[in-house]
Amino acid sequence: MSKKVIDVSSYQGVVNWYKVKASGIEGAILKVIRKDLNPDKQFENNWKGCENAGVPIIGVYNYSYATTLDKARADAKKVLSILAGRRAKVWLDVEDTCQKGLGITLIRIIQAYQEIIEKAGLEFGVYTGLSFYNSYIKPWAGYLTCRFWIARYRNPVTANQPVIKHTLEGWQFSSEERVPGITGNVDMNLWYGEIMSMPEVPQKNPYSSPDKILKLKLIRMRGHGVGWVQYHLVRLGFLPARNKKGKSNIDEVYGPDTAEAVAKAQAHYGIEVDSIVGAMTVYVLRYN
Length: 288
Fold this sequence. Notes:
288 residues, alpha/beta, Muramoyl-pentapeptide Carboxypeptidase, domain 1, 8 helices, elongated
């Protein structure tokens, strides 16, 4: 059974994800990167908004301007850099005029990008329009094994879903839908692939989550973000509730004991052990 999924970018501005969730939307795909290879201006807000509201993140997408394999590889690495350890399916959007008429080179561009993404342990798929697919991908269909997300703007009640030679994971059937919590139009999709539920936060943390990378420095980093990390480290058993002097270890100061506890948590959950609290460390602390 298909589900209703939207895809968004900075074009939609600031989204109220709680209203989106309440409207019945069952997932979202977020634009991750711009043409200049900087993050989409709303990517971080959208990611955090989805997490907080419990809207499953189906994936992220990269509108591609790649016409060479080197460009494709560089773009894929940049996307991974922006994700910074966060896990999401990466959709390569191939539809730009510069990619028309490339022949087999376009297929090799897709494969080069796919290789980088999958080597990082993430799933990969291709987004494009049905006309572009039929003209520039279908002739070489046997060279690609990934799933596709296809745009074909029709009313799904009166038109059949796109027919392609690959597995169709999603059908973008409109770019003019209205959804509570979003100003203006938004793309709407019927999703046929699996949608994972957002993990539940086991306990409410009274501190605000970090808004910057935390690490051990000569001049100690302080604030609610550090308290948030310490709270979860105590909850998960990596940091004693109290220090040797009997004082609380949740003191909002990133000192040696906190750094050591972070390293223990990282080793336990199988991520890079560096005592630095980045996006992936925040993720495992939040959802374990």
